[in-house]
Structure formats: C-alpha cells, structure tokens
Design brief:
InterPro entries: 6-hairpin_glycosidase_sf, 6hp_glycosidase-like_sf, Alpha_rhamnosid, Bac_rhamnosid6H, Bac_rhamnosid_C, Bac_rhamnosid_N, Ig-like_fold, Rhamnosid_concanavalin. It is built from 15 helices and 52 strands. By secondary structure, it is of the alpha+beta class. Bound molecules: alpha-L-rhamnopyranose.
Length: about 950
C-alpha cells in the first residue's frame, strides 16, 4: 500500500517535471519528431510572395495529412532576416504558444518595410506535447509600400494629335556596368501594360494592373527580373493600352471621359558588390504610337496591323530616332501606389476549337464548345494587306451569328498581314466573352481547319477546385457551368458579365455569389482586394455604389441589397475563413453603410431604392425588378446588415456598438413584421404607406400611396433567411412559401435575391426533398432548362435563350452571369452535407441530404485546415460513405435518416448515427430510410 502511494507520488513528480520542462520549451519529450507543418501561406493565401503588400503579414499552415498528429496544441513561428535563422537575424519569435490556431496569425515584430525580404518557419506540438520538425523555410518580400518609394515619374507619349486611346510603345536603353546579384521591376500604369526586357515578355500576366478606383489607388506589380538582365547594355520596353482607365466604361457615349495613359516603372538592380542602380521612367524615355497595335479596348477589341511592326523595338538594337521624348508627370500625392494584393489575371487555360459550324463565302464559324472569356489565337493562311476579322458570339441563333446582346461593344479583332502566308496572332489588350468565333479575311484558297483557332482563357490567377461529382450528368454540368461563370467573371474584379458594354462590379451580384465562389475556387485574396475598392468608393455619406469600381458620372447612387455588399461580403468571407482581419478591415465601412441606410429610412422602414428581386420570372408586366415590394426588400436587407454589424462588433470587442446594433435589429425586425404582414402572416394586401425619398435629404414625413404588395416566394424567403419572423411564426411562413411553390408546380419564381435563399430555407426547415425537385426540374424556370438549351455557363435570365426561339430579345441579356450559380453552395452544404459549426470549419457538421434521385456523390470543401472530403453512395437502400476529417478539426456526424449505422476507422468500429469524429478517414455503412 505504502509502496503503491510512493510509486504514484514518484510518477506524479516526474510527470510534473516533464510537463514543466516541455511547457517551458527546455526539454523535448520525444526524439521522434512529428512531421512538419505544410501548405504555409501568407495573408489571404500567398506562397513565397514577392511584391507583398502587408507590413505585418499573417501566417497560416496545415498539419500534414500523413502525420499521426490529430490536433495542434501549440505552435511556434520564427521570422528572420536570414535563411539560417541565426540568433542575430531573428526578427520575431513567438516561442511556444499554447493555441490550436493555425491560420491568420499576425506578425508582431517591427513592421516590415518596402523591399524587405524575410524568412519564416513554423512548428507545432500535438496533444501529447510531441513536437514537430520545423517546416520548410518560406520567404516574403515586400513591394513598394508607399508613394515615397517611387522616384520614377508617370510617362506617356506626348500625343500631339490628341489621340489618347492609341496604344503606346515606350522604351529605354540602360547600362549595367557590374555583375548583377538581383533585380526587381516595380511597375504599373494608368491603362494596361505589357513589359519587356531585352525583347522578351517578362510575365504571362494580362490586363495589368487590373481595375481599382484609379483616382484613389493604383496597384503596382513586382517582378523578379534577375534572369532577364545582363551586364552591359539592356533595353526595357512596354506597350500601354487603354484598359479600364482610359477606355470607355458602360455604354457607347462616355468617350469624353478621356484620361491619358501613363506608365510608371522602377527597375532596381543590386550588384554583387553590394551597390545598387535604379532605372526609372523619366524624361529620358522614348515613345511611339506607330506600332502594330493600332487600337485596343476592353469592349471593342484589338486592331493589329503587321505593316507597322517594329522588329527589335524592345531590344538594344533598334533605331528609335523617330520616336518622341515622353511627356512626364510627378506622381500625384492623392493617388496611392500600392502593391497588388491579389494575383494578376493571366492565361490560365488553352481550349481547342471543337467544330467548324459553317463555311460560306469566305466566312467560317468556329465553335469553342464552351462559353469562355479570353482571347483567340489564330494560326492560318492569310493574304498580304487583307485584314483577318474575328467576331465573337455567345450562341448562334438558328445557325446565324448573333451579336446584338453585346450591345455597343464591337468585340471585334482585326489583323492585317504584311505578307502572304501563315500568320499567328493573339490579341493582348482586350478580352471577349464568347463561345463562337466568326473568322473572315483568310486566304480562301484553303479550307478552314480546326487547328486554325484556339482560345486562351483569362481570369485572375487562382485555383479552381475540381470538387464535385455525382452520378447525375446534368448536375455535374450545372456545377461546371457555375465554375465557368466564375472563371469568366473574375477577371481582376467580380463582374456581372464579361461580354457586352458593361462588365461591371455590380455589388448585388457579388453579395449573392461570394459565399458560393469560396467553395469553388481559391478566391479569398480576390475578394479581399475588391473590398478595398469598395471601401475607397464609399461616399462621404456612407453610400456604397451599385458597382465598384465606380464611375460617378455614369449613374448616381446605390441600391438596397446591392450596397449591402458592404456587410455581407466581409461577413461571408469571415464565415468561410475565420479570418477576423476581413471584419476588422471592413467594420467602419459597415457602420457607415448602416448610418446611410438609417438616414434613408423612416421609422425603421428603409426607403433606399432597389433593383429588387432582379429578373424574377413571370413578373407583372415583365418588369425587371420583380414583384416583391422594394421597401420590403430594402428593409429586410437593412435588418440583415444591422445584424451582421452587431455580430461583427461583438467579435471585434466593440461591446457598446454590438448592443446598440442588436437593439436596432430587434426594432427593425418588429417593424418589418408588422408593417408588411398581417396577423396571419399574409402580406398586407391593402394600400400601404410608402415613403418618398426626398433627393439626398432626410425624410420628413411618410407619403401615402396606393401601392399594393404582391405576394411572392421572395417575400417569405428573405425574412426567413434573415430571421425576421418571430420564432413561433416560422413554420407558418414556411407553409406559405411551400404553398406558393406548389402553385407554380414546384418551380421557383425568384430573381437574383430570392434564388440563393431557396436551398438554405428548404433545408433548414426539413424540405430538402423539395429543393431536389426544384433543382432537378427540366422545365422553365429552372437551372436545367438552361442546360437543355445548350448552356455551358449560367445565364443572366432564366429564359435568356432557347434552342427553338433563340435569344430573349431584351436589351440586357448575358449568357454568362454568375448570380443564379449561387445555388452551387447547396452542393456542398446540402448534398454533401458539410456545414460549418464554427467559422473556418474548425467544427463542422456532416449531414448529407440523401435522396432517391441520386445514387452517388463525391466532393470536398477546402478549408484552412485542409479538405473535408465526403463520398456517398446508395445502392438498393444501402448507404456506403467515406468521410475524411482534416487534421485540427472535429466533425459532428448526423445521419437522421440512416439506420443500422456502422462507422469504421482503422478497424475500430462504432455504431449509431450521431457521433463526434476526430481527424481521420472513416467508412460508414447503413440503411437509408427515405
Ligand atoms: C444589370 C445586370 C447586373 C445587375 C444590374 C442591376 O446591369 O443584370 O447583373 O446587378 O443590372
């Protein structure tokens, strides 16, 4: 007995010693180290970035899949100025931090400065306090963080003829007289640019620097050009075209808004002896507008004339004596030059043409098989002086080439050959949205061949996930179509459409699609960057424009549910990533937007105008704004924004704000409930009070008007989604919604705003079966209707096109619009059943919505901890399932409709349809009860 106690005391003593020493990091308990963390990222997903934008970077990593470690108990990060992490070079060492956080850890050393290069590494400990090896060393190099770093000037062709839109060629020769250790090019433009060194393009980026509110901020690019330079004479050159800065935006009429194109570049060379040399744009540069690219615009296309080619113009061996000295301007203090904070657009994919649809009178129509966004590449026989003409179309109409839905966008490329023979051409300074290409002007002695044409798909350079497959080919097609809609409309800014004379960052479209896009692609940085533009474009009164970047002269103001992107986009990004930074960065924008809405409301009813449930089918008189009352929509969104702000304030520690917004939310909720609905939860049918907006001024008194509220699916969907009915009334509201759906034979009758709410609400209230029915409908209006009529992307309208009647003739009709693609979120949340229980999926539920209509599904949700993978298959009522729970997370398995559940992991077996699952791979079987 005594011995036993002694033994226990002895054991406790040693455990204590081991605990103390390991906790202090003195002795490590195990010589066998755990595998090192992997997938190290900086900020919103950068890997070893150069030209980075944050002086206090954030660090993320994952536990390796093959490691025995299941959870992270602690971590240590080190940042150093040398790759060897010598004691002297350490800039920041967290020491061992007891935390399971593995993402968005902010550097707390001395803020990093422009050009600074640092190295970082991380290690972790598991629950048994076993330590991992250090990760591989990663690096970060900062760009030029502020205007003070720029010694260069804005330069451009002097343009004696006042033709501001003609593409410019710029060049300079410089001498490097010592061996080169390292060189960087910092560069950007007012317009878009393509840079060359010694005759070679230095990157595949396109349309750089992309589109921001140029009057406030222009993003700068950083390139490692060490390999492009040589000791002795070198030549730098750039082509400059109008892009978004100088080109027309929206419609044909705004040519008067002409701002000259300009380039700014700073080439910084470090010699091996430690000295430096900086070459910059200044008065010594030469320029010409006599190059082969004669014109280029986003909407209208590019015109290239090979007769104007200037061989060697971007090399040392070129006579530029007839070029003109540039005009130059100092950098403007009010326009910030800042490192680009997301990947530039690039040539991501190359598609072959799949069919030659017709050839007639020297005009051939090619089919790319896919509605895509980018540029063609042609390689075909041509005749001297005879221009090749390329036109683009999204769909043929009864075999005819159709371009009317491009409106005023000419979307046409021309190439004039300087000699007979095979030419090769790909436009550089434009992009088109198309599936079909009409090629004319080629040498008609030859028969067109498929090999003449291919398509370069352009979008911001992020990864699209291949993470959904089922046994249902149309569902798979829909998933692909949503991905293609995303590709096509994520070219530097999120756009409504990529083809007509619009292509704008409509805020409403963005807020309905942002969450879905995160399941389909690695687009966090893309959105975080756009939010910076949103903040910059917010009015002094808090107004958030309808589209961003905004051009104030085009149209005034905002719209409810569009401006609410200010709260919804950051909130949805936070839900997906758990990065509190996106809330912190945007909180004051949220507050100001709410203040704006408050100002434009009367007695808690918002009167901000809205585009409504945009493009709702079967609306009265076909009105685009749909039938749901604008005040109902505006007030529902007002409530939603306030609730988001309350939760954000709470998370950020602004308790007083949180309290105030919570109170406001309840007031709006109560008012909303009683103002728009009667006791029985029917929409008030009699004339109601509405309020007229007194242009820009505070509303004084309500004005009675005779507007009737029309009952719509969306008028129940929004309040259910935004929690605006009382708890005990929700079932009643759902039954009203179900009745409305039934009335339309279980078809949706929703536009941009109502549609994304359908799957959320139907699943939440136990009607996933109905969601399947709606989703798998073949008849109009439905997603499959578009597929049945040849869609390879998602459309702007439910009836944008039909094989029998061709295009919907409405003036506004794009075949590549992502808004209705929002439903794809349900593929992950509903069909695969992966729902976050905590932001960032640290804890998540797996509750697939099984259906007799599908027999297998395979997919994943990429998270900050790795991929959550789910596969399920049903055969004759028997379920087999595989689940992969990533390291450092926990899953709640919930299979209410499955009996006799057996869960196997590494030969250990448990039973029951509700379980907490630790990281690992699980096999599950059971019997489905439909
Ligand atoms: C059109 C587009 C866009 C929408 C606006 C209101 O320009 O359909 O997607 O947001 O209208």
């Amino acid at each position: 007995m005594f011995f036993c106690q002694l033994k226990q005391a002895y054991k406790a003593f040693w455990l204590c010693i081991v605990f103390l020493t390991t906790a202090c990091g003195v002795i490590e308990p195990s010589a066998n180290k755990l595998a090192a963390p992997v997938n190290l990222k900086v900020g919103e997903g950068f890997v070893n970035p150069i030209g980075y934008y944050e002086s206090l970077p954030r660090f993320s990593w994952q536990l390796p899949e093959e490691s025995e470690q299941k959870q992270q108990q602690s971590y240590q990060i080190q940042v150093a100025s040398s790759v060897n992490f010598t004691a002297k070079s350490l800039l920041w060492d967290t020491a061992k931090i007891n935390s399971n956080s593995n993402a968005w850890i902010r550097y707390q050393g001395q803020p990093l400065t422009s050009r600074q290069q640092v190295f970082w590494r991380v290690k972790t400990w598991d629950e048994q306090n076993q330590m991992s090896s250090w990760s591989e060393v990663q690096s970060i190099e900062l760009g030029l963080l502020g205007n003070h770093d720029w010694l260069a000037k804005w330069v451009g062709h002097p343009n004696p003829d006042g033709i501001y839109n003609r593409p410019q060629y710029l060049r300079k020769i410089f001498n490097l007289d010592k061996p080169i250790a390292q060189a960087r090019l910092y560069i950007t433009a007012k317009g878009i640019f393509k840079p060359y060194l010694n005759g070679k393009a230095i990157s595949n980026d396109v349309m750089t620097p992309g589109w921001t509110p140029y009057h406030k901020r222009i993003e700068t690019l950083t390139y490692d050009i060490t390999q492009h330079l040589k000791q002795g004479e070198n030549a730098i050159g750039a082509v400059l075209a109008e892009g978004w800065h100088t080109g027309r935006i929206f419609g044909p009429t705004k040519k008067d808004y002409v701002l000259p194109m300009r380039l700014i570049a700073q080439l910084e060379v470090q010699y091996t002896d430690g000295t430096t040399n900086t070459i910059k744009t200044d008065e010594s540069w030469q320029s010409s507008v006599q190059g082969p690219v004669r014109s280029a615009g986003n909407y209208d296309g590019e015109t290239y004339d090979a007769n104007f080619e200037m061989p060697g113009w971007n090399t040392v061996n070129f006579d530029d004596s007839d070029w003109l000295a540039v005009n130059f301007e100092s950098i403007d203090t009010q326009v910030q030059l800042k490192p680009k904070r997301h990947a530039a657009a690039s040539n991501i994919l190359k598609l072959p043409a799949v069919e030659i649809v017709s050839v007639k009178d020297g005009v051939a129509i090619f089919d790319m098989g896919q509605n895509m966004v980018g540029v063609p590449e042609i390689q075909l026989p041509a005749k001297q002086g005879q221009a090749i003409k390329l036109r683009f179309s999204e769909a043929l109409e009864h075999g005819q080439f159709y371009v009317k839905n491009y409106r005023s966008a000419k979307s046409t490329d021309f190439y004039t050959p300087k000699a007979d023979g095979v030419i090769n051409y790909r436009p550089q300074f434009t992009f088109h949205g198309y599936r079909y290409v009409e090629v004319s002007g080629y040498d008609t002695n030859f028969e067109p061949e498929l090999a003449w044409l291919s398509g370069h798909v352009l979008h911001s350079n992020f990864t699209l996930y291949d993470n959904f497959k089922s046994n249902h080919s149309k569902l798979n097609k829909l998933s692909d179509n949503v991905s293609w809609g995303l590709r096509g409309n994520f070219l530097d800014v999120p756009t409504d459409c990529p083809q007509r004379d619009e292509r704008l960052g409509w805020t409403g479209d963005a807020q309905v699609f942002v969450s879905t896009s995160m399941y389909k692609a690695d687009v966090y940085a893309f959105w975080a960057a756009w939010l910076e533009s949103l903040r910059e474009d917010q009015g002094i009164d808090g107004m958030i424009p309808k589209f961003v970047p905004f051009r104030p002269f085009l149209t005034d103001g905002t719209a409810a549910a569009w401006g609410d992107a200010a709260t919804i986009v950051p909130w949805e990004l936070y839900q997906y990533t758990a990065d509190i930074n996106v809330l912190a960065e945007n909180y004051s924008m949220m507050k100001r937007w709410i203040a704006y809405t408050e100002f434009h409301s009367f007695d808690y009813i918002s009167n901000i105008g809205t585009y409504g449930d945009w493009l709702q089918p079967y609306s009265t008189n076909g009105r685009a704004k749909g039938d749901t009352h604008p005040d109902l929509i505006a007030t529902a969104y007002y409530a939603r924004s306030v609730e988001i702000a309350a939760q954000t304030a709470d998370l950020l520690g602004y308790k007083a704000d949180a309290e105030q917004y919570n109170k406001l939310f309840l007031k709006i909720k109560q008012k909303f409930r009683n103002y728009f609905f009667d006791q029985e939860l029917n929409l008030v049918s009699t004339a109601i009070k509405t309020i007229k907006r007194d242009k820009g001024k505070r509303l004084r008194k309500p004005i009675k008007s005779e507007i009737q509220l029309i009952t719509t699916q969306t008028s129940y969907l929004l309040p259910l989604a935004f929690n605006l009915f009382n708890q005990h009334e929700q079932d009643l509201a759902v039954s009203k919604l179900l009745a409305l759906l039934k009335e339309s034979d279980n078809h949706l009758k929703t536009g941009f705003l109502g549609t994304p709410m359908l799957h959320q609400i139907l699943q939440r209230y136990g009607h996933s079966d109905l969601m399947y029915e709606i989703l798998l409908k073949e008849t109009y209006p439905s997603w499959f209707y578009s597929i049945n009529h040849g869609a390879t992307t998602t459309w702007e309208r439910w009836d944008s096109y039909s094989l029998t009647d061709g295009y919907n003739k409405a003036n506004m009709n794009s075949l590549n619009h992502y808004a209705y693609g929002a439903v794809a979120q349900w593929f992950y949340n509903g069909m695969l059943g992966i729902q976050a229980l905590e932001p960032g999926f640290k804890r998540f539920e797996i509750n697939p919505q099984f259906t007799s209509k599908l027999n297998n599904l395979n997919g994943s949700v990429p998270t900050i901890n790795g991929d959550i993978k789910v596969y399920w298959q049903i055969r004759q009522g028997k379920l087999s399932m595989t689940i992969d729970v990533p390291k450092n997370t926990q899953a709640q398995l919930n299979l209410p409709s499955v009996e006799q559940v057996t869960i196997t992991q590494n030969k250990s077996v448990i039973h029951g349809n509700k379980h907490t699952l630790e990281p690992g791979l699980y096999q599950i079987s059971g019997v489905i009860r439909f």
